[in-house]
Specification:
The protein is α+β, with helices and mostly antiparallel strands and 211 residues long. It has a single domain, classed as Beta Barrel (Porin). 24% of the residues lie in helices and 42% in strands. The chain is built from two helices and twelve strands. The chain has helices spanning 5-26, 182-210, and strands at residues 33-37, 46-51, 54-61, 69-73, 79-85, 93-98, 103-114, 117-126, 131-138, 142-148, 154-161, 169-174. The chain has a twelve-stranded antiparallel β-barrel with strand order 1-2-3-4-5-6-7-8-9-10-11-12. The chain is globular.
């Protein structure tokens, strides 16, 4: 079967139209805080940050680091926050600091095991180490991370759509303002994107080894 150049062009345009239609339906997200992954001109994982419709710089992974570290730099170039994975911990513990290096809070992994199955969740703690929320994640037609206070109150919801044609995008809805610091919310999204990129990279390496 032969295809003419015109036929191939029409097929390509149709395919792109379908992809962008899926992206529009399943790839749109909105929230009080929005993050959009940078696909081009980046060295490490990097996402642009918008808060209440206003550009608030970017959160980017540090190139030189003892452990994985993200820095949120605002539009003026000042450091709004940093977050690093603890070098020594039972699970994955992430500590968040403000621009001056003062503690903001932490994101601490908790492990569960039942009937031979192991899974994890995260506790969100304030600067004093008090637990203010726990996180629950669902991954069906996208990713949703819900932060819930010990009394059952929903504090925030982080949504990542199913289709991300031009990199990850997150919409964070703050359900109870002030309950969880915005800097912690931004870092949760940034580290989740980075963790998933690691998984994708590992999968591609395993596939290449099998060939």
């Amino acid at each position: 079967m032969k295809f003419s150049p015109k036929g191939l062009l029409v097929a390509a345009v149709a395919l792109l139209s379908i992809i962008f239609a899926f992206s529009f339906v399943f790839g749109t997200t909105s929230g009080d805080i929005e993050l959009k992954e940078r696909v081009f001109f980046k060295w490490k994982n990097s996402l642009d940050v918008t808060v209440a419709g206003k550009d608030e710089g970017k959160v980017a992974e540090s190139a030189i680091q003892m452990s994985r570290t993200f820095t949120w730099t605002d539009e003026s170039g000042k450091t709004a926050a940093t977050a690093s994975v603890a070098i020594i911990s039972i699970g994955t513990d992430i500590y968040v600091y403000d621009g001056a290096g003062n503690p903001v809070g932490s994101i601490e992994e908790r492990l569960f095991s039942r009937w031979g199955r192991t899974w994890s969740g995260y506790d969100i703690k304030d600067a004093r180490g008090n637990k203010i929320a726990s996180s629950d994640k669902t991954e069906f037609m996208g990713t949703t991370i819900t932060l819930t206070a010990p009394d059952g109150t929903k504090l925030a919801k982080l949504d990542r759509p199913w289709v991300n044609v031009m990199g990850d995008s997150w919409g964070i809805k703050v359900l109870k303002p002030g309950a969880v610091d915005n800097r912690i919310l931004v870092m949760i999204a940034a580290f989740k994107t980075a963790a998933d990129r690691d998984k994708e990279s590992g999968s591609s390496k395993d596939t290449s080894k099998k060939k």
